[in-house]
Amino acid sequence: SALTLFLTFSSLLGKIWLMLIILLRMAVVVLAGYPLYQDEQERFVCNTLQPGCSNVCYDLFSPVSHFRFWLIQTVSILLPYAAFSVYVLHKVAMYIVRMHCLVHGCKGNKGLSSPRDLKELCRSTVVNRLDCGAENLRVLNFSGAYTVHLFFRTLLEAAFAAVQYFLFGFLVPERFSCYHSPCTSTVDCYISRPTEKSI
Which residues belong to any copy of the Connexin cysteine-rich domain (predicted)? Predict the structure, then answer.
């Protein structure tokens, strides 16, 4: 599978990073983030009875749901993994076809017609690779693609951290002051569990 190929061709640091993103981040978002933020708007209490004022203040305080933002972030961070895995899968498949042509010869439409042929090729390639010539045997190198995918992954992490800072900041305040129509004066709103949310 693509994940197996990725784990085969990535570095130890890349494998650890993958496990942290998939397991730790998803566990934190789903098991900690969702219960903490699911009642966010209900517990956002403002000291006003003006209709619509609390909703407007909440929208100013949190323009995007934290939980949805983190889910989009996690899925986006996994996109470079997916692209790299597809690239590796494609290159390995092309390499296997090329080895098949070297070992058995490709004449006309003769080639890999079924998954069974592919399995037989994988077995025969190991047995017959001495017939292919030493110049045609090489280890596939994915270091360039791996570096590019690491660059895009790091860029996405930095971009999402910057967006989170500009949308929410990194500290959740205990009190949020708001003055916006339809509020007739400055309104103080209070956030539930601000310390836990900041942590």
Answer: 156-199
DSSP 123-178: HHHHHHGGGG-GGG------HHHHHHHHHHHHHHHHHHHHHHHHHT-SS--SEEEE
How far is it, in rounded angstroms, from Cα 72 to Cα 91? Answer: 29
- Give the angle subtended at the CA of 65 by the CAs of 174 and 33, to the nearest 5°: 75
Separation CA 88–CA 105 (nearest Å): 24
Query: For residues 179 and 187, is the Cβ–Cβ distance under 8 A?
Result: yes
Average pLDDT value over all residues in the chain: 77
In tens, the pLDDT along 23-54 reads: 888 888 888 888 888 878 888 889 888 888 99
Rounded to an integer, what distance in angstroms lies between the CA atom of residue 182 and that of residue 50?
8
Calculate ∠ Cα 154-152-157, nearest 5°: 35
Closest CA to 131 of 94, 93, 101, 102: 102
Please give the model's pTM, rounded to 2 decimal places.
0.66
Determine the pLDDT at residue 25: 81
pLDDT at 97 over 60: yes
Contact between 183 and 50 (Cβ < 8 Å): yes
